[in-house]
Amino acid sequence: MGATIGSIDIGIIIAYFFIVFLIGLWVGRKAKTGDDLFLGGRSLTWGFIGLSLFASNISSTSLIGLSGAAYSEGIVQSVYEWGSAVPFAILALIYVPLYLKSRITTIPEFLELRFDRRSRVFFSALTITASILIDTAGSLYAGALVVQIFFPSIALWQTCLVLAVVTGIYTAFGGLKAVVYTDALQAVILIVGSTALSYLMFEKLDFSWDKMVAAAPEGHFSVVRPLDDPDLPWLGLILGVPMMGFWYMATNQYITQRILGATDIKNARWGIMLAGLLKFLPLFIMVLPGAMAISIYTDIENKDMVFPTMIVQALPVGLTGLVMAGLVSAIMSSISSTLNSASTLVIVDFVKPKLPNITEKQTVLYSRLVTLFFVAFAATWAPQIEHFDGLWKYLQQMYSIFVPPIIVLFTVGIAYKRGNADGAYVTLLAGCGIGIVLFVLGLYDLWTIHFTINVGIVIALCSLIFVMVSRATPAPDFEKIKPFLYNRALINEGNEGLPWYQDYRYHIGVLMFLFVLSYVVFW
After folding, report:
1. Which residue segment(s) compose the domain that 401 sits in?
2. Which residues lie below 8 Å from residue 273, measured CB to CB, with a gap of 6+?
3. pTM for the whole structure
């Protein structure tokens, strides 16, 4: 299905591209060291951190994937968004002070401090692979779908390549600070554009909630589903969704790099709270429009085309350009974030240990070359995603393969002081092996348990493996690992002397209230 786009809309999109490109080049002039490129000079404040966390996390894959999932399955997939309130709370309470006091540049670096280099290298390689094959490629594919609506004669791979090149250049030269600054702009455009689309879709249903619910299949607006539900059973809601959310928010370099670049613990926590609050918006401005579309556009066969179809059919001239700019924002935000995190991991976890005397100038050069290589690779892989059953399922199923052992190392690992390096490494190997086996068996219908439940099962197995191997091998040096273990003092770290309204724990209370309320309303 092709569609025309007016000159005004094209002008808005071009202007946006131009502004983002200028920001990247302007910031890039000041990126002289590895710390500048990877962590923005550790000078990020809470507003930029919060908006950047939101913009990077609510990527084009979310816009395309969530709308498509809501059209075919209902709003159940929205729990991945507002459900992040819980992992964000845990991140702020415990992991922010652990990470920032450790002065790490990458999350895998924390595993080396707690365990050994084997775990760091394994986790880093895993994260790099996921960043390129899942996050970057998924964002390129989602953006290409929309562009093809307006320019159907352009091949999918050509669109992926153009998007990759434009974003790759400003990320390579600007580093994390360029990513964060453009994210802040992108977050605003994303919210405004998606809100406009949501309003116009609801207008088509005469602003009637009852009419919207009546026109949809039974259970379309419920998040708690039967155990045999193919999309998200209630047991997966308990076992899988919170765990995958914890991995994504608290241990994924792609997300946590902004937190590592915070100016202090207070700003990191406030930024997380802002992002947690913003994460309640996607239900209303991304998921519900997709759920409404089932009663308005009844002939969409490919669910990944739901969001593009709404843009074409529901929006007037001008607003189409604004929402397209919002989508471009999401695409570029997600791609730039994953590219920057992946290049950071390569340089810090692999290049610097091999070349300890590398100069800052060489560090910046190598990082930029790695970024450009990764973006080319992702552009090559992205067109293959169309062979999977929907973008959202592609993302979640791929994540479920390697998430469980990582979760165990970052939860049981910081609580169980007897846990050692051998236990961590064996857990990573065994956990990923089990995940791959279950994934392959599922492809041939030989293992039919939903992947979200698989996550909970494999986490239990990995916890057992970690404890058993650790107990069967020599204990670690407690004094050496003590700074990287949980203790109650972490919760109040950096919070001394603040008035109640600046106390992040009150902010967590607000997030938990909204979390529970969302379940009550959409049960």
Report:
1. 7-521
2. 50, 88, 92, 504, 507, 508, 511
3. 0.79
